[in-house]
């Protein structure tokens, strides 16, 4: 009798029986499904990465574009009326494959520029002044802030788009979202050959030629270059430069701080984002 009771004890069921039982009654809630996955993981049928992917794929249906978008102040955009000689340094320094192109304001998105679309024109025209990027813009995809990520991911796949401009309730640009942003919610951080450099606040381009994030702490800048900038009034290099300029600078404006020359690579109507820097030769 004791053997019969033991064989019928639910705690003695194999993981296969547990899974079979779960599927026989069909999971009716997410909790049921997660419990099923937990059993599979416990018995080494699937690993932590697989569970994370399944959970991520389920969670994006509860998330909206506003939750993961690149916010408006951090968007890197190109102005349609800028000469190519000014646009190329931005493209080279930031290293993105796609850029929103705007008209007079950030709310006037004309289209998306693919960096690769520039290459044939650079080869074709000897004079860059003959190139008008408006001629090669792709249509911009506009989505509301409330767009569900699972729906947006399906739209990206079906329409073969990789980027969308997120629009607020007033029709203005609220931010930017890419297919990679959504996939990272499912599989985790996706790193490519450029990510390591992009995460660095200071990046060496060549001898005495550096790209510096404006939010680089002054203390870190001083440590890197053996400089002696004071951090009593400002915390970041961008703050120091705002004081040096005396106004919010535009792209390509240049100023000098002690023995260093800074050129604004990317800025918007609120703050400086990216700088090009070189150390001046001692006279």
List the helices and strands and how they pair.
Elements: H1 2-8, H2 15-25, H3 30-42, H4 48-59, H5 65-68, E1 70-71, E2 78-79, H6 84-94, E3 98-102, E4 109-114, H7 115-124, E5 142-144, H8 149-159, E6 163-167, E7 173-178, H9 179-187, H10 195-199, E8 202-206, E9 209-213, H11 218-225, H12 237-245, E10 254-257, E11 260-267, E12 272-279
Parallel strand pairs: 2-3, 5-6
Antiparallel strand pairs: 1-7, 3-4, 6-7, 8-9, 9-12, 10-11, 11-12
Fold and architecture overview:
Plays a role in the transport of magnesium and cobalt ions. This is Magnesium and cobalt efflux protein CorC. Belongs to the UPF0053 family. It comes from Zhongshania marina. It holds the Pfam family CBS. The chain is of the alpha+beta class and 283 residues long. It has three domains: 45 residues, no CATH class; 122 residues, CBS-domain; 80 residues, Uridine Diphospho-n-acetylenolpyruvylglucosamine Reductase, domain 3. Helix content is 39%, strand content 21%. The protein has twelve helices and twelve strands. A five-stranded antiparallel beta sheet has the order 8-9-12-11-10. Helix 2 packs antiparallel against helix 3. It is globular and about 80 Å long. The N terminus is likely disordered.
């Amino acid at each position: 009798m004791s053997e019969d009771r033991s064989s019928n004890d639910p705690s003695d069921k194999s993981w296969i029986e547990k899974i079979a039982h779960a599927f026989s009654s069909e999971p009716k809630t997410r909790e049921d499904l997660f419990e099923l996955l937990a059993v599979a993981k416990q018995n080494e049928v699937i690993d932590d990465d697989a569970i994370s992917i399944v959970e991520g794929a389920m969670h994006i249906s509860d998330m909206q574009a506003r939750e993961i978008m690149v916010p408006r102040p951090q968007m890197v955009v190109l102005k349609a009326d800028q000469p190519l000689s000014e646009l190329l340094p931005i493209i080279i320094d930031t290293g993105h494959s796609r850029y929103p192109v705007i008209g007079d304001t950030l709310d006037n998105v004309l289209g998306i520029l693919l960096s690769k679309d520039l290459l044939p024109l650079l080869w074709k025209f000897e004079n860059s002044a003959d190139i008008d990027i408006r001629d090669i813009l792709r249509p911009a995809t506009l989505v509301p802030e409330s767009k569900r990520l699972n729906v947006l991911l399906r739209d990206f796949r079906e329409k073969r788009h990789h980027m969308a401009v997120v629009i607020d309730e007033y029709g203005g640009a609220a931010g930017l979202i890419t297919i990679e942003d959504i996939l990272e919610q499912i599989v985790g951080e996706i790193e490519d050959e450029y990510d390591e450099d992009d995460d660095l606040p200071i990046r060496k381009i060549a001898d005495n030629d550096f790209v510096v994030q404006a939010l680089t702490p002054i203390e870190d800048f001083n440590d890197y270059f053996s400089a002696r900038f004071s951090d009593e009034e400002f915390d970041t290099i961008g703050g120091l430069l705002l004081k040096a300029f005396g106004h919010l600078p535009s792209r390509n404006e240049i100023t000098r701080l002690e023995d260093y020359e800074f050129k604004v690579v990317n800025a918007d109507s609120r703050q400086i984002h990216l700088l090009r820097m070189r150390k001046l030769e001692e006279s």
